[in-house]
Amino acid sequence: MVSIVVLVAFKDAIQGRGEVGDFDAVWRIILGVILVPALATLYQRLKLPESDRMTEVLKDRKLKEALQPSNKNLSDMADQLVNKEATAGLHDFHSSKLSALNEFKNYFGKWKHLKHLLATTACWFLLDLSFYGIALNQSMVIADIGYDRAQEPWQNAYDNTKANLIITLAGFLPGYYCTMFFIEYIGRKPIQVGGFLVEGILLAVVAGDFGQLSTQPAGFLLCFILLQFFFNFGANTTTFVYPAEIFPTRVRGFASGISAAGGKVGAVIAALSFGELSQLIGTNKVLWILAATSFLGAAISLLLPETKGWDADEADSFETGRHQHQQTPSDDHVPSTIF
């Protein structure tokens, strides 16, 4: 929307007077406007309160620091008050604590947990291959089908921007909102598997009928609108929901980081290779490759359990036997498939 407004503002200069160099000003203004929501988001993130779990950890830490003797006299007094058995127990407690890396290795040393990490990482990787391959090169694909046929530079840029806006408003945003509203009813797994499958089918349709669609821009735009819809009403949302829910707190940060890194590797590969491959083998063949990766993502997603309505920390405590003083999780909170 910003791009269209700025282009319209420079229409007389670029199209009327032929001052094509003003495209540079258009580009700089668009980038400047982008900074506003970015800085606003950064400010809100800095003001975001800590989670309840982290708050409890900080409270416990402050309490321990407050109770810790502050000088030698108090230390001597504390040593006299603390019996040997308690001191030995405290020593055993600290010595038994694993480092973050050992904690990670201990948890994912079991195949039933490791397969979940491999699945979340692989699915995020495969999703970003398609998502960024399409999103970052959507204008190139639109140009390939001849939607922006205008020879005049301003009109060409305007038509391409309008096509991207239609795809975004009709597909991209509604897909996100559908996930927000229905994820607790449908569940994570059906949305992710279904999203991958529909993406694969739509990419195959576009790839298989690329020549015909190049003469029917309306049909192409409809396919891309549906594609963007099911990206977001699908794996482009659930691939970052899964790592935040499926792993217990003690390994969640590490595991989520690995999963996200897998996705960004896919994004980098897509950004660097889509254009080159399109010129080398043709855009339709590249879309066939992305269709195959989408179907593979659906298959790997079957390794993941449904995480709707259960607590990973509760499941972790139940599994490791630290639940003797806690209520045993019900079947609704700990699905048998997780083990």
Protein architecture, described:
The protein has 17 helices and no strands. It folds into 2 domains: 1-40; 109-308, MFS general substrate transporter like domains (Growth Hormone, Chain: A), CATH 1.20.1250. The relative contact order is 0.11. Helix 1 runs antiparallel to helix 3 and helix 10 (153-186) runs antiparallel to helix 11 (188-208). The model is unreliable at 81-98 and 323-339 (pLDDT under 50). It has helices spanning 2-9, 11-16, 23-47, 52-67, 72-81, 84-96, 100-108, 111-135, 138-144, 153-186, 188-208, 210-213, 217-232, 235-246, 249-281, 283-301, 312-320. The chain starts with a helix and ends in a 19-residue tail after the last helix. It has 339 residues and is mainly alpha-helical.
Give a topology summary:
Layout: H1 2-9, H2 11-16, H3 23-47, H4 52-67, H5 72-81, H6 84-96, H7 100-108, H8 111-135, H9 138-144, H10 153-186, H11 188-208, H12 210-213, H13 217-232, H14 235-246, H15 249-281, H16 283-301, H17 312-320
Helix pairs in contact: 1-3, 1-10, 7-15, 8-14, 8-15, 8-16, 9-10, 10-11, 10-13, 11-13, 11-14, 11-16, 14-15, 15-16
Keywords:
mainly alpha, 339 residues
The CATH top-level class label of the largest domain? Mainly Alpha
Gross morphology: globular
**Hey, roughly how much beta strand do the residues contain?**
under 5%
Query: In CATH terms, what is the architecture of the largest domain?
Result: Up-down Bundle
Number of helices: 17
Alpha-beta content class: mainly alpha
Q: What is the fold-level CATH name, i.e. the topology of the largest domain?
A: Growth Hormone, Chain: A
| Tally of domains | 2
Largest sheet: none
Q: Number of DSSP strands?
A: 0
Q: What is the radius of gyration?
A: 27 Å
Termini separation comes to 48 Å
Overall pLDDT confidence: 80
User: What's the helix-strand series?
Assistant: HHHHHHHHHHHHHHHHH
